[in-house]
Input
Amino acid sequence: MSAQGRRRFLSRALGAAGLAAAGGLACDPSRPSRGLLGLSERWNEWIERFLFDRSRLAPELPAEAETPPGMFPAYRIGDFYPEAPGGWALTVGGLVARPATLSLDELKRLPRTRLRVRHHCVEGWSAVASWEGVRLSELARLVGADPRARYVEFRSFEEGYYSCWDLESVLHPQTILAYGMDGAPLAPEYGAPLRLYSGVKLGYKMVKYLSVVSFLPMRTGGYWENQGYEWFAGV
Amino acid sequence: MARPVQPLVIRFTHWVNLVTLLVMAGSGLRILAAFPQLGAVSFPYRWYPFQGDPPPGALTVGGWLGGARHLHFAFAWLLVLNAALYLVYFAASGEWRERLFLPWRDARSAWHTVLHDLRLRREPPASVGLYNGAQRLAYTAALALGVLCVLSGLALYKPVQLRVLTAALGGYDAARALHLLALSLLALFTLVHVVQVLLHPRTLLDMTLGGRRGEDGGARP
Output
């Protein structure tokens, strides 16, 4: 190689190394919502929303596919499974025409939906249970949700536990407020008395121990999302 | 001017691919570490020998699950765009004739190469143009593995929105196993590839600077 060629090669190599270093600084996995990684999360959300179809259903599975009793993984964010406060009721508010407070019995009198779909955890495992509850779309109709509310926040009575969803996923026919699992009332380790369940989101988006549902014009964060897990998290 | 042994687009995409594949493999292994098992909960795949064994930490990139996922889904775009550039050039330039394994042309040479490498055959295998049959087979297999990685990855990313693809691969958990299998085979390919390059360092120069083709179209000795 000539001296000139060598110089050119060296300067190119140095340039590439510099570019890689700058890219590394903008790609910090400990702060994934910032820099290039944050940019790519927003781009990926656009793709995820583009792919999302409200009429596309997660496949309904046969009873044999169910995870055996007690084997469905149960996660908690605190030291113990929280217990519902006495006189528990669900508050539904925000941008709605008719804010409501619903007891468990009142929720159970609303049209009932059953789902048996695959549960996808962010960690990579999958499991199957059958869930029973009322569709969020039914609830939105009941309270007269304002179409300007593009986001819905779900809050738990467990301190600091919440999440926020895009309206399209909330209104998906397989998104429910579940009070039953595998033919029995929801157990404490799975979110009793009421939890969010859906065929179209990763598990960490499905808030347990629900107490407040708010229809909002802007998105908020969430317990897992604020730690850097992806906000949209559709499947 | 004659086309170099490794044209610019192929050299560029080759090295970009190396970087993106390393990040994809490392972040993918970090994601695997969060649940180092194959098969659904309570239905583990019996054939998988590493149930419950996380991959070595030194091979992982991203530090934690959320960070590794962000890296994985950012670099996936880089990988796919780079692959698209490669494939467009591959098809349009006619380089595919030099590089793709065509059984009627390359099967015999590939078999002779295997025999030669196993010391069962004295004569070296015949090369047609740039590569011998075994090289074409290996490079074509690597391309196929790349396609399998992308398809199984899409099924894992959107198992419901892409439910037809997921079902075609045998379901979510099967797609996860295929994703890891494709990675393992790509790693095996890379290992053999690097050993071959060390045995023939000239090819490293060609892949970096281009090199010049000989009279017969093959690389000059």
